[in-house]
Design a protein that fits this description.
The complex is a heterodimer of chains A (505) and B (319). With 505 residues, chain A is mainly alpha-helical. Chain A has helices at 3-25, 37-40, 43-53, 65-77, 80-85, 87-99, 104-110, 119-132, 143-165, 182-194, 202-207, 209-217, 262-266, 291-309, 313-317, 332-336, 344-348, 384-388, 399-403, 429-432, 439-443, 483-487, and strands at 58-59, 62-63, 223-227, 252-253, 272-276, 283-284, 354-356, 369-371, 420-423, 451-459, 465-473, 496-499. In chain A, strand 10 (451-459) and strand 11 (465-473) form a beta hairpin. The radius of gyration of chain A is 27 Å and the shape is elongated. The termini of chain A are far apart. With 319 residues, chain B is α/β, with parallel strands linked by helices. In chain B, 32% of the residues lie in helices and 20% in strands. Chain B has ten helices and eleven strands. In chain B, the strands form two sheets. In chain B, strands 1, 2, 3, 4, 7, 8, 9, 10 and 11 form a nine-stranded mixed β-sheet that branches. Chain B is elongated and about 100 Å long. Classes of the chains: A mainly alpha (505), B alpha/beta (319). The interface between A and B is medium-sized, with 28 and 30 residues.
Chain lengths: 505, 319
Amino acid sequence: MRIANVRIISQATFLTLFLVCLYLSAAPRIDGYPVSIFLEADPLVALSTAISTGQLYHVGATGLFFGIGLLVATMVLGRFYCGWVCPFGTLHHIVAWLGFPRATKARLEANRFRRWYWIKYGILLAMLVGAAFEILQIGLLDPIPLLSRSMTDAVFPAVDAGLRVVGLGGIHPSATPEFSGAWLIGLLFLTFLLLNLWVPRFFCRAICPLGALFGVFSRFALWRIHRDLSTCGGCNLCSKGCEGACEPEAKVRLAECMVCMNCVEDCPDGSLSYEFLPPPEGAIAGVNVTGRRAVLAGVGGLFLMTLLRRSGSAVLQSGQRHLIRPPGSLAEEAFLARCIKCDACLNVCPTSVLQPAGLEGGFEGLWTPVLDMRMGYCDITCTLCGHVCPTGAIERLTPAQRTGTEERPDGSDGPVMIGTASYDRGRCLPWGMDTPCVVCEEVCPVSPKAIFTREERVIDRDGKPVVLKRPYIDPQKCVGCGICEHECPIRGPAAVRVGSRIGTI
Amino acid sequence: MSRRGLLRRLAETGLAAAGVSGAAIWLHGRQPRGTAAPPAPVSSFRVDAAAGAPRMVIARGTRPGPLVDAALEEMGGIERFIAKGDTVLVKPNAAFDRPAWQGTTTNPDVLGAVVAACRRAGAAEVLVTDNPIHAPEGCFRKTGLGRATEDAGGKVLLPRPSDFGPVALPGTILDGWSVYLEPLLRANKVIGIAPVKDHNLALASLTLKNWYGLLGGPRNRLHQRMDETIADLAALVRPTFSVLDGTRILLRNGPTGGSPDDVVAGDVIALCTDGVALDAFGATLLSRTADDLDYLRLAEEKGRGTRDWRSLDPREISL
C-alpha cells in the first residue's frame, strides 16, 4: 500500500476517534470511557500547565504523561502528529483538499514556504511566557482544546438541531444543548477552516502553537525526509502535495515537515525517502525565529498577558466579584492557571448548567466554564465535570466526596458548596406579591432543605388576612446547586439567585 | 435571435414567474407553522364495574411485588381492568433522579409488578412515562424505574416537545394548559402509581399530585394555586385505577428527601378507582387526615370522588 494511503487511514481513524470521544461524553453515555484522552495526550497542555502550576497533573494511571510521550516520539520520528494524528489538522487537510485548486502551478505556489510562518513560534513563546506568569491562555489556539470547544459548543449543537429539524433524531441523548456565545466560537472555527482556501493548512503552518512545539522538538528527529541529489531531476513536484510547506525541493525544513509522505509519493525519480539518520546537511533543523523576533514575541506576549490579567479578573481574585465555578473547582487563581477552555466539562454536563464564560471574568476567563442557573442546575451528586477535566482545574471527586460523606483530597469534608442562594424579595411572589408559590423550597435537594418557610399572616390590600409560606435560606445548608433559581417561575432574573458563597461563620 | 430561441426564453421566464407567483399564492394565508393545535379533550379511562365489585383494597406486607399481585387479585384480578390488546399507560412518580431507597419516587418493584400484570392480562403495549423535574433519562435510570419497566415487558417513553399540546378541560384551571397528551391519547387504559410523600405546600404528595407529571408548560406557576390545580388533576385524568405505593414513606423534607432519616418503611399498598378516596387514606400514612388537605375538599366539592374512603368498604389483606 502507498504510504500516503496508510497516512490517510491513520488520519481518518484519529479524527473518528476524537469525534467518538466527544459523542461518548454526553452524560448518559460516558460510562467510564477515557473521553479526555486527546486532551491528556496534548504535550502543549502538559508543558504549559506544568509551567503555570509547577506540576504535571495526573490522576491514577491517566494524565498528562501521554503528551510527554508524544514529544519523545517527535524527537524520533519528526512532527508526525500534525500529518498523521491531529484531528484539527485532518479537518484542515480535508477542507484544503476539497476547496483548493488542483492545478500543479497553483499548488506549487500555495505550498512554498513563507517567512511569516514563524508567527506560530511567536504565539507559542508568548503563551509559554504567559504561563510562566501563571496566565494560561494556550486553550485559545492549541488545536486540541480549540477543536474540543468548537465541537462541543458550536458544531455538535448545530448539527444536532439540524438533524432534529429534518427528523433524523439528534446527537445528544435529550434536547439540543444551548451554549451562550457559541456563535463566536463557531465563527472562529469556520474562519480557520475557510482560510485553507487561501493557504492550505493555514492554521497548521502559521498559527498552531502545538505544531510549533512539535516543530521545535523535531530538530532531533532520527528519521527524516531525505532527497537524494544524485537522482533528483529538479522538477519541484515534491512540493505539489507538501502539507507542511517545508521545501523538500530544497533543504527540507524539519520544523515545518509534517511527515505527510506526499513528496515521497509524488517524486517521479524516486529521489525522496524517509530515512534513518540521513546526512544532516540535507535539512534545516532549527526554526526560523531570529533572536530579535523571539524577544519581540516574548516581551509582546508578556505585555499582552499582563494586560489580559489587568482587565477585571483581579477583581475576581480579590473576592469582590465571583463566578460560580463547577463543583470541585480550585480557587479562582489556581483554576485559571489550569483551565485550558477545552469545554469538555460542558459536553459532559447533563443539565447544560455549565456555560462558556463571556467576558464577565475578564478576557482571561473567556470560554472557561461558569454556571448559569437559568440554563440548568447542578445535580448535587454529579461529579462528571471533574472526571473529564484533563488538567485538574476541576478536581476529580467521587459523589460521596461531593455530598460530603467522604473526605476530599484536600482534607475538607461536608458538602461541596459552590455558592449561596438568596432572595430578591421584591420579585418573590410570597414576599412581594402576597401570592403563594415556594417552588424553590419544593425542589431544594438537600436534607434538611436549605430553603425553609415560615407561615406569616399578612393583611392583603383588600384588608383580608392571608397566610403565606415565605421562603428563607439557611446559608449553612445551601450548596449553591441553583435548582431553586432554575425552577423559579419569575421570568427574567429569578426571585432567588445563586451568588458567591456568603461568608457566614 | 431565432424564433425558437425567443419562444424558449419567453417560456422560461413565464414558467419561472408562474412558479414564484404560484408559490406565493399557495403560501398566502396559510396557517403559520407551529400554530397551537386546538385543545383536545382527554377521555375517561375508567371501566364499568359489576355490582358489588370491590372498590378499594389495602394490602399490608413487606414484599412489594407479591403485595401488588395479592391486592390486584383481591380487587377482582387484573383482567377486570385490562383486556387483551389494550394499550396501557402507567404513570409512576419519576420526578427526581434519585435512588429508590430515598423514597422520592415510585418503588420500581411495585411498578414492575403492575407492568407485568398488565402484560399477563394480554396488554399489547405497556407504556411507562413521566415528565419529571430532573432530566428524564437520569430519572428513569437512577430510580431503577427504567430497568423495572423493561424487565417486566413495558416500554419507557421519554417526553419530547412534540408530545405536548393544549387540553380541553372547561371550568378548570387546566383548560387550555399544555399537557403531555401523546401517551394519553394513545392509551386506552391509564394506571397511576404514586409514592407517599411529605410536601410543604400541598402537605402531601399522593396519587392526585402524581398527575402533575403529565403537565407541561410553565407548570411551576401552578404552585400559586396548588390546591385548585391538584383538585383539577382529578378531572384531567380519570384513571382505570390508581395505586398508592406506601412501601416507603417520605415523612419529611419532601418531596425531594435525600436522607435515610427522611424515609420509613410503610409496607402498605392501596388500590382504588377513586383517587380522592385513595389520597384521603394516604393522608393517614403521613399522620394527617383528609381534612388537612384542602385539595381533597375541593375535589370532593367538584364531584371528583369521596374523601370518606371507609365508605368504599375497603378490603384489607395482610401477607
